[in-house]
Amino acid sequence: KALAISDTVFEIDLTPNRPDCLSVIGVAREVGVFTEPMGRVKLPEVVLPQERLADTSIHDHAQVVIMAPDLCPRYSAGMLFDVKVGPSPFWLRQKLEAVGLTPINNVVDVTNFVMLETGQPLHAFDFDNLAQGKIIVQKAGSDIHFTTLDSKEHKLEPEMLMICDGERSVALAGVMGGENSEISNATTRVLIESAYFNPISIRRTAKRTGIATDASHRFERGVDPEGTLYAMKRAVFLIADICGASIATDFIDEHPRKVEPITISLCTDALNTRLGTDFSCEAIGEILRSVEFLVEQTGENQLDVLVPSFRVDVVRPEDLSEEIARLWGYNNIKTSYPLVPAKGKVLAPVLLLREKLRQILPGFSFYEAINYNFIHGESCDRLKLALTDPRRSVETILNPISDQMSVLRTSPVPGLLETMKRNNSQQSDSIRIFEIGKVFFATQKGKLPEEREMVAGLITGNRREQSWFSKKEGVDFFDLKGVVEGLLKALVIPDGQFLKIEADVCPYFERGFGAILKIADKTVGSLGKIDGQVQKNYGLKQDAYVFDLDLAMLLGVMPESILANPLPRFPSISRDMTFILDKGIEVGAILGQMKIFAEKQSLVESYFLFDVFEGKPLDEGKKSLSFRVVYRSASKTLTEKNVKKVHTHMSGVIVDKFKADLPE
């Protein structure tokens, strides 16, 4: 405060479409609209002092040739003599440091100051280092290497725009100057560059060279093509004042391709419809004139709007609508609602099923995995699929990302096994994952493959997290079967049958540890333990259990509505029955027979297997299965007499059907 150097610094976030506000003048122009009374920006006057004018013209010393007018439509230059390079005055250093720029010397600091003031990037060349006094704007061509001001060498591409002298490149146009022409303490003659470059060209050069500068940031967004001359004169005036230099008479202003001003025909009715307002032509004109647009009314509801050159973002009527809304204030636009009330649309059944699966499976401690639809071309061999297996009908990718993703998958199993391998490599041994995705089967050449949506899951590792109160137990086939049964129960799909699977159906399952799931005589999916050889093919060192289910099949067996039963009024009675049978007889077959019996006998409420025993004293090749049957009546309390006859009858049916024995 004592030195009167305190100041306020504003940090302003800008969208990329407003390069005009990358300057103090641009921001002031916007602020002026909201002041009372409304203000208009006054640019600093640039009057070149007569006593500083040299008796020689710039044209006697320098020449500018533009060889790529499509990339550089305008190039302005000014020249100073007897320049005394040194530290900048305190006020100039303070201004630059306040916005995060490091002062370098009085010449370079002035070019940075004017850039911040006007938004027009400038560059100062040591004129004595420009061969033949020429500036040639051209593409890099065969000149493939260039060293910039930061002493870094960059590899150029032929299409990059360069600033050259009579012999070599001296600057990456719009990005950074060259080390061979920078301002030094020995500099006495300075050429100031102020140009308009093609934004796309500058952005491409900056990205490919990896150079990001304040100049490239502005050029790649678009600067004012009509502002080059003013910014250059402003810089020349300040350098002459600060450095005690003299100014060459005249300026160079090569302008091979003039940027034509844009005139937009604006229909006020269309604007009001778009914004939901009722502005008159006069009100719209007043708002646009406040930010220096020129407006002329050409019809009852028609305006011709001349866009100022610094507003490179405004090119169509919709842009003018945005200007009106922004300047008027979005909060001032009344909210309107559609006349038709919003009505939700019922989601497709498959979408609802996906969401249900994503809600159910995490309840079994599963995490969802998202794998690529592309798999390795040898995946079918790794799964030991037969040559005639339909899952070998893979669709080959013409331009695969890699050889690991060369075909579309016909099974979700390879993706799950690869995910398991990645997790195991990160010392994550206990895994429960599921995936919902499509598989693809090739049809005829030139036609799209057939798509089917599947849900698949994998478990491996320990049954529960290891702790002091639980022993280490690995998961097995029945853990996986329990998950599938729980999934069917949650989806209210009854009567799922797990049947023995043939070896050629899923050869990647270990024999004796696989099953197919059938519901209403439809094969819905399969589940089982991954074969040891398949595990080796995928680099796995522990057992894995996998299921996959067809979503279309699941949808086909899901009930359209759910019926609720009242709570039972009378108690149930449970009775057990035990059978000694051959090992080869499936439990599912016995449960199926019980189902047939229960459909005819209303007293049977439920039944389930609760014990399996093998070994002595049973004969070899035999097993003991124990079932519990729950009986209940909807109209009375059952007695032992009511149940005994039905229970004996059911037991006799099982004995006769499966040639079973009853324990002694």
Q: How would you describe this structure to a colleague?
A:
This protein has a 7-stranded mixed β-sheet, sandwiched between helices. The chain is elongated. Helices cover 28% and strands 25% of the residues. β22 (496-500) and β23 form a beta hairpin. The protein starts with 23 loop residues before the first helix and ends in a 6-residue tail after the last helix. It has 4 domains: 43-249, Phenylalanyl-tRNA Synthetase, Chain B, domain 3, CATH 3.50.40.10; 263-332, 2-Layer Sandwich (Phenylalanyl-tRNA Synthetase, Chain B, domain 1), CATH 3.30.56; 349-557, BirA Bifunctional Protein, domain 2 (2-Layer Sandwich), CATH 3.30.930.10; 573-658, Ferrodoxin-fold anticodon-binding domain (Alpha-Beta Plaits, 2-Layer Sandwich). With 664 residues, the protein is an alpha+beta fold. The chain has 17 helices and 28 strands. The mean pLDDT is 91.
